[in-house]
Design a protein that fits this description.
Radius of gyration: 21 Å
Organism: Actinacidiphila acidipaludis
Keywords: FAD, Flavoprotein, Oxidoreductase
Largest sheet: 7 strands, mixed
CATH topology of the largest domain: Butyryl-CoA Dehydrogenase, subunit A, domain 3
Family: Belongs to the acyl-CoA dehydrogenase family.
Strand content: 5-15%
InterPro entries: ACX4-like, Acyl-CoA_DH_CS, Acyl-CoA_Oxase/DH_mid-dom, Acyl-CoA_Oxase/DH_mid-dom_sf, AcylCo_DH-like_C, AcylCo_DH/oxidase_C, AcylCoA_DH/ox_N, AcylCoA_DH/ox_N_sf
Protein name: Acyl-CoA dehydrogenase family protein
Distance between the termini: 48 Å
Helix content: 40-55%
Number of helices: 11
CATH class of the largest domain: Mainly Alpha
CATH architecture of the largest domain: Up-down Bundle
Length: 403
């Protein structure tokens, strides 16, 4: 699809959204990785996204491109091209760069490289990690993460309906999952189910093609249309004990995985803000009304400054969150506050930036409509604002308000 999108910064140009120069916090070798990611995403990924977003399809050629990019498994020690794990600040900024180009691509990568990969890394034993992770780190195999259910989202921790029953050395899974990113084509799906014997949540790696496993694409989405979300049904799906994640014994273990990956969504939200702001700023300088660029109008400048303030505040919060993660002292409430705050600010920023485009802001050619729509999905997944607020509220008051 041809695009009329205004000029965005070249890969080697500093972003006008980095008003407080946060990128200077990276070491020189880290900056080279970020610059490589920025160039790769702008040159290889951006040309594809509008066409596939409009069709609601996934560009599978991206898997091969990412496989050769050196950007997989950045965060995980011993995997990927960068065997020592990079800092959380760098991995966060790479996630930010992905969403700065397209939130769907960032979500695909976050599900595979974050939720799916880390579930096995954190929950699997040595044999399981050696069996699955090398191929996942190189994107020879794609992962998905199946937690949410048709009748259970925020309450799935205590109301999981998908069951697992052990019969000898085999587990039999029954139930349904919904909104599972990558679910239609993933090679390995990490399925969470309630053990009917002890009522505890356990994790299982279900391979594509397993009898009784069915994944149907969810149609009609208005956000993250490139992401292939599936509704999954499990009918007497037989999984060997060797495919049960051996270090997962309750939902507390699942919550630990979500704590680590939730910060990635916050960085994605920041990327969406930056992408929308850059588009709006460039458009305001080029679009003329009443004989002059609309960037000279006070109300347009006010929208841009408010957006820049939200970006700058969110970026500062995430820099400190990354430091806490690198020091090993990040808690659930730290990640939850970041997710609640950044996604709320994201909603405001994309609305303001779309407003600057006027009528042009509702067509895909200018890119901003895609950012505006996709923000709604990031606002909801990995814990709604309300649920994350309750996590933080319990921390600061010492009292739980969960029903």
């Amino acid at each position: 699809m041809a695009t009329s999108s205004p000029h965005a910064p070249a890969p080697d140009e500093p972003s006008p959204a980095d008003f407080y120069l946060y990128e200077t916090l990276l070491a020189d070798d880290e900056r080279k990785i970020l610059d490589h990611a920025r160039t790769f995403l702008r040159e290889k990924v951006k040309p594809l996204v509008n066409e596939y977003w409009a069709k609601g399809e996934f560009p599978h050629e991206l898997i091969g491109l990412f496989r050769d990019s050196g950007l997989t498994a950045l965060s995980w020690e011993g995997y990927g091209e960068h065997r020592p794990a990079v800092s959380h600040l760098l991995s966060g900024m790479v996630a930010m760069e992905m969403s700065r180009v397209d939130a769907s691509v960032a979500t695909f990568f976050g599900v595979h490289d974050g939720l799916g990969f880390y579930s096995i890394l954190a929950g699997g034993d040595r044999e399981q990690r050696e069996r699955w992770l090398p191929a996942m780190a190189s994107l020879e195999k794609v992962a998905a993460f199946a937690l949410t259910e048709p009748l259970g989202g925020s309450d799935v921790s205590g109301g999981m309906r998908t069951t697992a029953e052990r019969v000898g050395d085999t587990w039999i899974l029954n139930g349904a999952k919904k909104w599972i990113g990558n679910g239609t084509f993933a090679d390995h799906v990490v399925v969470w189910a309630r053990d009917i014997r002890d009522d505890q949540v356990k994790g299982f790696v279900v391979d594509k093609g397993t009898p009784g496993f069915e994944a149907v694409k969810i149609e009609g989405k208005i956000a993250l249309r490139i992401v292939q979300n599936a509704e999954i049904t499990l009918t007497d799906v037989r999984v060997p004990e060797s495919n049960r994640l051996q270090r997962v014994n309750s939902f507390r273990d699942v919550a630990e995985i979500l704590r680590v990956t939730r910060s990635g969504v916050s960085w994605q939200a920041l990327g969406v803000m930056i992408g929308a702001y850059e588009l709006a700023l460039a458009y305001a300088k080029e679009r003329r009304q009443f004989g002059r660029p609309i960037a000279e109008f006070q109300m347009v400048q006010d929208l841009l400054v408010k957006s820049l303030g939200s970006i700058t505040a969110s970026w500062g919060m995430l820099v400190q969150l990354a430091r806490l993660q690198d020091q090993g002292i990040c808690r659930d409430e730290h990640s939850s506050l970041a997710k609640a705050f950044t996604t709320s600010r994201m909603r405001e920023v994309v609305a303001s930036c779309r407003e600057i485009f006027g009528g042009n802001g509702i067509v895909l050619d200018y890119d901003i409509a895609r950012f505006f729509a996709d923000a709604e999905a990031l606002y909801s997944y990995e814990g709604t604002r309300e649920m994350n607020s309750l996590i933080v509220g319990k921390s600061i008051t010492g009292r739980s308000a969960f029903v």
